[in-house]
Amino acid sequence: MIILKSPQEIERMKKPCRIVAEILALLAEDVRPGVTTLHLNERAEEEARKRGARPAFKGYNGFPYALCSSVNEQVVHGMPGKRPLNEGDILSIDFGVVCDGYYGDAAVTLPVGAVSAIAQRLLTVTEESLSRGIAAMNSANRLSDISHAVQSYVETHGFTVVREFVGHGIGKNLHESPQVPNFGPPGRGVRLKPGMVLAIEPMINEKGPDVIVLADGWTAVTRDGGLSAHFEHTVALTDAGVEILTVAS
Fold first, then answer.
1. Could you state, in order of their start, the residue ranges of all structural domains in the chain?
2. Is-above-0.85 flag for pTM?
3. Tell me, which fold does domain 7-244 have in CATH?
4. Residue 68: closest CA among 49, 95, 47
5. Taking Cα atoms as reference points, which of 142, 167, 138, 137 lies closest to residue 230?
6. b vs e for 78-99, b when ≥16 Cβ sit within 10 Å of the residue's Cβ?
7. Rounded (5°) CA angle 211-114-45
8. For 198, which DSSP code?
């Protein structure tokens, strides 16, 4: 069942979403060669608690960290560790908090120093595909119009869309209905309505779309070793149109 949020609930969701955006911006300032993802995880948790929020991922289905940090061929759910980041890496950071009973969730992929041309193009295309998906979130469309907007843009630029992981509804729970795939034909699924709040999150691969999950049970990597990028916003559809909630004030 899709839970439509009232205007008052959407206002309440702005606080956790703003906190997520602020912390991701702080972490981006720390991303450089030599920094560890464990350091980023510790800072994210500390900054969340300073703001009266709780990290959403820590303890979720047993996940042990506040931050998902995925490097290079890692797609999603990468575990923070002590290995320093290297010049030329790309790092996907996925972070969420819960505050006053509501969740916020967002992700960004960042270059570590100077990166290859293909890595930079992957980041640019993935971020733009998120913008295309958000633009398709309007009351004239159906759910799969978001999915199709992402896929059609990505594939036009020679990259591929991960199938195993998708976006989702969000509110009083981190994951709610509906699932929001980043692929599919247009004009399918439920009609989009004011009150829907979705976490739209393209996960895009340099080469093939297939992924495998490592022995830790969490870290998903590209099967062919190609790079992967991930961008995400929590987005609300209101009577006035679409509003990105995961923005810093």
1. 7-244
2. yes
3. Creatine Amidinohydrolase (3.90.230)
4. 95
5. 167
6. bbbeeeebeeebbbbbbbbbbb
7. 65
8. E
